[in-house]
Design brief:
binds flavin-adenine dinucleotide; seven-stranded mixed beta sheet; alpha/beta
């Protein structure tokens, strides 16, 4: 039986472990942290249970596919609630817009915010559906050579939808110049660590996936899925070891032989799949003589995604006026995004994502309490921000906005609090430059064929799974990545 070592128990690592074990490989997962899950982790303290990373589940089919591949049914094992509206959007001028999946309700909302825009919405959604079809043609496949990009149907869709244009400008034009609607229908690129002012219009496909395919909440939170995958892993005979940081991938004569842990222990393997950040893996786990295609200079030139500051609050009140998910857009949204992506400075007025899962799932907090999760995108660590000094400043700004949106007396009702900083992403997960959602941003030259491949070019038996390789960032993408790397390994090893 061939031995596989997977470095990292993120969602991608776990999904690959399940799939490979089901195909008869003998899989061991080695995770540096005390708890599996990676960026999809959880804190359980004082009666609160908070997902620390992802909270939004879209493209549910990608998750279901992992379960189908091992003969299981996700929907029989985890209970899901569909969210609608997907988000409430708060603008700086105290107005709001609810982004519904229900097309009729969504049309009413956009008409309320910008009269006459209902027809524009229908055109925008049809156009975004075409971009989704275009994008998925490049997402759902492995790449070997550049000609794999040649696809006449996709080229026609690319030209029809002008997916190569600038995202924010195209969306603003689609909604007759309405800044409020342009923000509401373009911010989704932030989930890939891309500013809508810099992203390709192609990424309207995420808006489509969100609104048309639906958004789900697994009861117990996203970590409930990680727990279930761990349970299945145990049943299937996968070995998952925590507190087991890998220090080196052992390579002899151009082939992997296993890995060496920080403790000095060597774990032999025929195949190593790294779920740790790809740039980190090459730089720190593969000796330079075995990565001529990925020297330090190339890794430095890559374009890294943004980071984030998170505040988790337990409060001794409930808030019937809140939606499960919300976004707050600061007055100078452009300046906020430029600070994150261009000038790389601490944003003066951060925009943020507010998740209040207790609206749907009160079991996450003691009775009569609420859980608030606030995520403000921030520059990554290349900005050189001193986070010991910056964290209290950002916290104060976020609380000032929560006083407006949630509760003017919120400070008096906080009974539990934790934060999470860009430095924590580096320390906990070896996230390159403390990037939050994933390491490599999704510009054209870091997507599809141009994203680092899931097979190392210079070492036999070394593969990648997760956000660092294709298709890229986000939970559905890392599930698809687990399928792609499994297909690749099966082609080469069976
Ligand atoms: C705050 C936040 C909010 C997000 N929101 C969403 C969302 O709502 N929806 C969504 O779809 N996505 C979201 N994302 C993105 C999503 O969480 C990630 O893209 C995805 O979880 C990445 O999974 P992965 O399997 O690639 O790896 P990771 O989760 O990054 O896991 C990699 C694992 O490797 C381990 N590791 C690293 N180095 C070593 C080593 N040397 N030895 C052993 N183990 C090692 C790490 O500890 C980690 O456990 C969010 C991310 C963050 C941080």
């Amino acid at each position: 039986m061939q031995q596989v070592v997977i470095i990292g128990a993120g969602m991608g690592g776990l999904a690959a472990a399940l799939r490979l074990q089901a195909h008869g490989f003998d899989v061991t997962v080695l995770e540096k942290q005390p708890r599996p899950g990676g960026r999809s982790s959880v804190i359980e303290e004082c009666g609160f249970r908070v997902d620390t990373g992802p909270t939004i589940l879209v493209m549910k089919d990608a998750f279901e596919d992992t379960y189908r591949a091992i003969g299981e049914n996700l929907n029989e094992r985890v209970e899901f609630v569909r969210l609608d509206p997907n988000y409430r959007i708060y603008y700086h001028d105290d107005t709001h817009l609810d982004l519904y999946s229900d097309p009729a309700k969504l049309a009413e909302e956009v008409e309320r915010v910008a009269p006459g825009s209902g027809a524009q919405l229908a055109r925008f959604m049809a156009d975004s559906a075409a971009k989704y079809a275009l994008g998925m043609a490049f997402v759902e496949r492995n790449y070997t050579q550049i000609t794999d990009l040649a696809n006449p149907v996709a080229l026609r869709r690319l030209l029809q939808t002008r997916a190569y244009q600038n995202l924010y400008r195209q969306v603003a034009r689609a909604f007759g110049g309405s800044d409020k609607l342009a923000k509401a229908f373009s911010f989704h690129s932030m989930f890939l660590g891309l500013s809508p002012f810099e992203a390709l219009a192609m990424y309207s496909l995420i808006t489509y996936a969100d609104l048309a395919l639906g958004m789900w909440y697994p009861l117990g939170g996203i970590y409930r899925i990680v727990e279930d995958m761990l349970h299945l892993a145990q049943q299937m005979g996968v070995t998952v070891r925590t507190n087991a940081p890998v220090e080196q991938i052992c390579i002899e004569a151009g082939r992997v032989r296993g890995v060496r842990l920080a403790s000095g222990e060597e774990v032999p393997a025929d195949i190593v799949v790294s779920n740790a950040d790809l740039p980190y893996t090459y730089r720190h786990l593969v000796a330079p003589e075995h990565r001529r295609s990925y020297p330090d200079a190339r890794l430095e030139r890559m374009d890294y995604a943004c980071s984030g500051y998170l505040l988790y609050l337990g409060v001794d009140r409930t808030y019937p006026h809140l939606q499960h998910q919300a976004l707050y857009f600061s007055e100078d949204y452009r300046a906020n995004l430029d600070a994150i992506f261009r000038t790389r400075t601490l944003p003066d007025a951060p925009s943020f994502h507010l998740n209040v899962p207790t609206v749907t799932d009160p079991s996450l907090a003691p009775p009569g309490h609420s859980l608030l999760y606030v995520l403000a995108p921030m520059p990554n660590l290349t900005a050189g921000i001193d986070w010991e000094a910056a964290a209290p400043v950002v916290r104060e700004k976020l609380l000032a906005q929560l006083e407006r949106i949630v509760d003017p007396d919120i400070r008096e009702h906080i009974v539990w609090e934790r934060d999470y900083r860009p430095t924590d992403f580096l320390h906990d997960f070896n996230a390159a430059h403390g990037t939050a959602f994933g390491s490599l941003s999704h510009g054209f030259f870091q997507s599809a064929y141009f994203r680092p491949h899931n097979k190392a070019p210079d070492v036999d038996g070394l593969y990648f799974v997760g956000q660092g390789t294709y298709p890229g960032i986000g939970l559905p993408m890392v599930h698809i990545s687990s399928r792609l790397v499994t297909e690749r390994i099966l082609e080469e090893w069976s």
